[in-house]
Design a protein that fits this description.
Layout: H1 2-42, H2 45-61, H3 72-94, H4 112-123, H5 127-137, H6 143-150, H7 154-181
Helix pairs in contact: 1-2, 1-3, 2-3, 3-6, 4-7, 5-7, 6-7
């Protein structure tokens, strides 16, 4: 009986190590993309780092709920998006601006004035619209992929993108008009 228990303990330890190793490999591979997504949503590097860290901690705690390891990226992105959403809601309630206008990725070629205008326009979006815009344009995901990662229906994603882009265009047009008149 005690031999069976010690064998079970050894198997449990080995299983825990392989589980930890699998999570570590997936997390290491997905870290740059996760940070980029958090930065696109939150716009502040420090907040993006914190959100990414918090999301990985949550993912580790919920690791047992992931049924298919090949779906890690989708599963993790959902955790990360929810973490960012909660961060944005908390900061909005606190009345604190979290949008830091610094270039990321493909924004590097945009002028500082344009970046500030875009950041202001993005900041005017509510959390749900900002998330779908970040997933679409910073992660280059399709509507069905965004729907799967957020748990939304594709029609809801399309609607949010439509209204977000309409609002962004209006804000950018208004900024252009002020520039021409000013």
């Amino acid at each position: 009986m005690s031999a069976d228990r010690s064998l079970a303990a050894v198997v449990d330890v080995e299983d825990a190590r392989s589980r930890e190793d699998a999570f570590q490999r997936l997390a290491d591979r997905h870290l740059p993309a996760a940070y980029a997504l958090a930065r696109a949503i939150l716009r502040d590097p420090a907040d993006a780092e914190d959100a990414t860290h918090d999301a990985f901690v949550t993912a580790w705690r919920k690791w047992g709920t992931l049924r298919d390891v090949s779906r890690f990226e989708h599963w993790f992105d959902r955790i990360l998006v929810n973490t960012c959403r909660n961060r944005l809601r908390r900061s909005a309630r606190a009345g604190r601006a979290i949008w830091n206008v610094r270039p990321i990725g493909h924004e590097a070629h945009v002028s500082w004035a344009d970046r500030e205008t875009i950041a202001t326009a993005l900041a005017s979006l509510d959390v749900n619209h900002r998330i779908v815009v970040a997933l679409r344009f910073y992660r280059d995901l399709t509507v069905p992929e965004i729907a799967r990662r957020t748990g939304l229906r594709p029609g809801t994603v399309k609607s949010r993108l439509h209204y977000a882009l309409r609002r962004l265009h209006a804000a950018l047009d208004e900024a252009d008009a002020r520039e021409v008149l000013g």
